[in-house]
Design brief:
13 helices; mainly alpha
């Protein structure tokens, strides 16, 4: 890489460091203020600052603010999870859905909601546990004198298909109870409240903080297993821990938002195209970018199709899949 490329990449990093947080702030305010009932900016700021009580206080504090905060955390978790998996597996198409983590969380949530509805209050916990156990199973299924990225992807695809078949089987057997579950499987933030945020936040925040400690090993794994071992790294242990961290992040997101796709796949890929593969920048920028995408997509899904509220997972799939195919065709994969 020449000096000109280095300077250009540095300028992009500086620009995104300012642009992404600004976008997140603007999109969050827009999402809180705009909807079936639009709220004047003056009233919005007065309620958020606690200066006065407003007729809009209930709408802002009880409905829209927790939904926006959950959206930020969901987007950050999914984008960080995708960024880690893409690096660990050296595959720009890797995300929580590829290795079956999302499917594991979805199956656990399906069992809870359909077969054991009396334990529905434990939904975030069961979805997280399902995602976590699935990641462990996939890793050990791929283990044979080491777990290569290719083996992990292949094992993940197989487990993903199996979990999908089990989920479909449950939907057929308990068809009379499925209607209440379909919106969750489509992915969305409808009806999310402070209660859901309290369940999710500990897992999400712990995972996001642990990402700070994942930066160095993720960068070293990009050099290749042999080079990392020559530098004294325990490659298999680091890969296992990074995959577990990705599972924690994905499980936390799935537990409250359902099966939301696209975010962990495309956001890190786009950030990588702009600023490169250095995880010192890739991880935090992806987190903020994921938050921007989820909050904006959720706002569009709930307000642009009035009186119907479209699940954000469907909107992201419809918009995101063609865009990603175009991006992949034009730029080509980044990781080899």
């Amino acid at each position: 890489m020449g000096n000109a490329d280095i300077r250009r990449r540095s300028r992009r990093r500086l620009l995104l460091a300012v642009l992404l947080p600004t976008l997140l702030f603007v999109v969050s305010l827009y999402s809180i203020a705009y909807g079936a009932i639009s709220i004047p900016l003056s009233d919005l700021l007065a309620v958020l600052s606690g200066q006065q009580k407003s007729v809009y206080r209930t709408i802002i504090m009880d409905l829209r603010l927790p939904r926006v905060l959950i959206g930020i955390l969901v987007g950050a978790c999914l984008a960080a999870s995708g960024a880690l998996l893409q690096g660990v597996m050296k595959n720009p198409l890797a995300d929580p859905g590829i290795i079956g983590v999302s499917a594991g969380g979805g199956l656990a949530a399906m069992v809870t909601m359909v077969i054991l509805p009396q334990f529905s209050y434990l939904l975030p916990v069961t979805a997280f546990i399902g995602a976590f156990i699935t990641a462990i199973i996939i890793y050990f299924m791929a283990w044979e004198h080491g777990a290569s990225p290719v083996k992990i992807v292949l094992a993940g695809v197989a487990v993903n298909a199996l979990l999908g078949a089990v989920t479909n089987g449950i939907m057929v057997v308990f068809s009379d109870r499925v209607q209440a579950v379909l919106p969750w499987l489509s992915g969305g933030l409808n009806g999310r409240s402070w209660h859901h945020l309290e369940f999710m936040a500990p897992y999400a925040l712990i995972g996001l903080v642990l990402c700070l400690f994942a930066i160095q090993p993720a960068n070293l794994l990009l050099l290749g297993d042999d080079s990392a071992k020559l530098l004294g790294q325990r490659v298999e242990l680091q890969r296992f821990l990074l995959i577990m961290l990705a599972a924690l992040l994905a499980g936390a997101a799935v537990s409250v938002a359902g099966l939301v796709g696209f975010v962990g796949l495309v956001v890190p890929h786009m950030i990588r195209l702009l600023i490169g593969e250095d995880y010192r920048f890739l991880l935090p920028y992806s987190m903020v970018g994921g938050g921007v995408l989820i909050v904006l997509a959720d706002q569009i899904a709930r307000s642009w199709f009035d009186p119907v509220e479209l699940p954000v997972g469907i909107l992201l799939a419809v918009i995101g899949a063609p865009f990603f195919l175009y991006l992949l065709k034009r730029k080509g994969p980044v990781l080899s």
